Amino acid sequence: MTFWNFFFNNKKTKIIENTIKNTGTKIFIENLKENRQKLIIYSSTNKDINLHDLEKLCDSVGWVKRPIKKVKIAIDNSFLTIAIFYYKENKKNLIGFARATSDESFNATIWDVVIHPQFQGKGLGKALMQETIKQLRYHDISTITLFADPEVIQFYKGIGFVTDPDGVKGMFWYPV
Amino acid sequence: MTFWNFFFNNKKTKIIENTIKNTGTKIFIENLKENRQKLIIYSSTNKDINLHDLEKLCDSVGWVKRPIKKVKIAIDNSFLTIAIFYYKENKKNLIGFARATSDESFNATIWDVVIHPQFQGKGLGKALMQETIKQLRYHDISTITLFADPEVIQFYKGIGFVTDPDGVKGMFWYPV
């Protein structure tokens, strides 16, 4: 993918919230450029996500392929989805995604957090999670949970997540 | 509550699945009796739960009181609720409850698992969780999760739940 050519002078992240009609909220990542052109990144809670783009994004981080039909059901039944993208020649380029299930009252659980490898380490993951938390807090949800792989535990700690508070343990049941 | 008078010869739990119209599924807990009368316990996924009964049940285990309005929203937006009860003079007596949020495709998270203290240690908690898992598996949900307080981790391990598989950690974010 030689067309990717980014210049990142620093990683300082600042979110400017300008809701733009039908496009999403503008996320300002300082000095994010492509071919010397400043890149404008958007986030959107619109569920009208191109599932093939999402599949490609998940492929890019090496996730196991999942049936698109099941992904569609999961998105439809998620309380919240956040897509992170930019426009290139009027086409949306999906570079980040997260979703949350919720009872829309007390609890939410965040799933499928992904940033395209080309855009990792630029503050986009942090911006994505801050946007997710902001949306859930807007709905007065006070317990926001997730299950973190070992390599991203520090990342989530940096955003304010804690592991095992008061000895509470995340537990899993899988079919045998 | 002197009217409670139970005789439990052993704790062996066996679930007989007889769906009874409008009442729920009969759960057979061996030798569960009240005043020498065998007690017939039912489970139901019907969301038409008396919220005051649920509040009383949560009170009985010392949970912090929650606004009924918020509880109603949480139940309405849960994928699954399981109520455990028996009939006395044609009145339902709620003695157990659990609910799960889900994307209805891949994942589910179980919340608010409660058994009335008078009925704890009789195998009802296990029956409640087995019913919850059965319902979620029926919908082909393969990752069933929960957050367990330290004192119930062993109970969930007995049902087949595992903590921190491959180092995956349950994490929480609370408003500051």
UniProtKB/TrEMBL annotation, chains A, B:
Organism this protein belongs to: Corynecladia elata
Pfam family, one: Acetyltransf_1
Top-rank lineage group of the source organism: Eukaryota
Underlying gene: ycf52
Protein known as: Uncharacterized N-acetyltransferase Ycf52
Keyword Transcription: no
One cellular component term from this protein's GO annotations in UniProt: cytoplasm
Domain named N-acetyltransferase: residues: 44-176
Keywords noted in UniProt: Acyltransferase, Chloroplast, Plastid, Transferase
Gene Ontology MF terms: N-acetyltransferase activity
Presence of the UniProt keyword DNA damage in the record: no
